[in-house]
């Protein structure tokens, strides 16, 4: 492929090792973003009577996590090793992922009162969703036109279908970068929202401590001692 332009050389080691690692990290970040976005919309409109909004938000959660799993498949099953699984992962990441983007574009237009939301965000998401969908469609078209890779590891300009392969690869990268930009647009709204994770014990360490030491909560309070292990949160 061409130097400084999108290529598929990440399919082969050692590039594939770094490429797989970065994609795995991106998959994790995507899954977290999908969950936080779902929780944000769900919490803010918890008392809202719009069942359609909540239903769309729930469906988007499942599709978003499926797309994140697809990215993980692409990262760990290179096309030169297990092409079938790689293509399944690509379909989940770009195909199912595109549906997720459209659903949250719809939510962006319906949830304009969400703190931090600005009009340019929903318009940006609409345009981005459209371009990503077109890119994914063209990726499939050009990939079919290019056909299978010729003998040898790398394509060359003299190979039949080379131009179609270059177009398919470049459009795949366009879709990948725009998808990342779409998720980045959530952060403007995430700034007005935070998630806390409660930490709970299956058995109370406080009661176990009293059984061992012979102390009781009443004695501790009488002696001026307090135990701070009752509730623990991470924010």
What would you note in describing this structure?
Belongs to the DRAM/TMEM150 family. There is one protein chain. Helices cover 66% and strands 3% of the residues. The protein has helices at residues 15-44, 51-76, 83-110, 119-146, 162-184, 187-190, 205-213, 217-222; strands spanning 197-199, 232-234. It has a two-stranded antiparallel ribbon. The radius of gyration is 24 Å and the shape is globular. It starts with 14 loop residues before the first helix and ends with a strand. The model is unreliable at 209-216 and 224-235 (pLDDT under 50).
Structure summary:
This protein is mainly alpha-helical. Helix content is 66%, strand content 3%.
Helix content: 55-70%
β-strand percent reads under 5%
Assembly category: single chain
Computed over alpha carbons, the radius of gyration is 24 Å
Unreliable stretches = 209-216, 224-235
Question: Strand order, biggest sheet?
Answer: 1-2
Terminus-to-terminus distance: 46 Å
Sheet with the most strands, sense and barrel status: 2 strands, antiparallel
Report the principal-axis shape.
globular
**What's the helix-strand series?**
HHHHHHEHHE
Could you say which structural class the secondary elements and strand pairing correspond to?
A: mainly alpha
- Average the pLDDT over all residues and give the rounded result: 80
Helix tally equals 8
Number of strands: 2
């Amino acid at each position: 492929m061409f130097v400084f332009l999108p290529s598929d050389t990440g399919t082969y080691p050692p590039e594939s090792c770094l490429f797989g690692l970065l994609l795995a990290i991106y998959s994790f970040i995507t899954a977290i973003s999908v969950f936080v976005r779902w929780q944000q919309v769900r919490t803010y409109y918890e008392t809202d009577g719009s069942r359609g909004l909540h239903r769309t938000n729930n469906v988007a959660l499942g599709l978003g996590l499926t797309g994140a799993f697809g990215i993980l498949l692409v990262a760990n099953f290179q096309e030169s090793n297990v092409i079938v699984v790689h293509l399944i992962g690509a379909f989940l990441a770009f195909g199912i992922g595109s549906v997720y983007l459209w659903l949250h574009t719809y939510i962006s237009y319906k949830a304009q009162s969400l703190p931090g939301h600005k009009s340019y965000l929903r318009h940006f998401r609409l345009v981005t969703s459209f371009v990503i969908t077109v890119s994914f469609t063209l990726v499939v078209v050009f990939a079919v036109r290019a056909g299978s890779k010729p003998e040898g590891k790398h394509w060359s300009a003299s190979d039949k279908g080379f131009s179609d392969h270059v177009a398919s690869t470049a459009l795949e990268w366009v879709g990948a970068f725009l998808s990342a930009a779409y998720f980045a647009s959530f952060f403007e709204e995430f700034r007005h929202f935070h998630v806390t994770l409660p930490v709970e014990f299956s058995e109370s360490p406080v009661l176990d401590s009293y059984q061992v030491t012979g102390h009781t909560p009443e004695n501790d309070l009488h002696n001026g001692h307090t135990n701070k292990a009752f509730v623990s949160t991470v924010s």
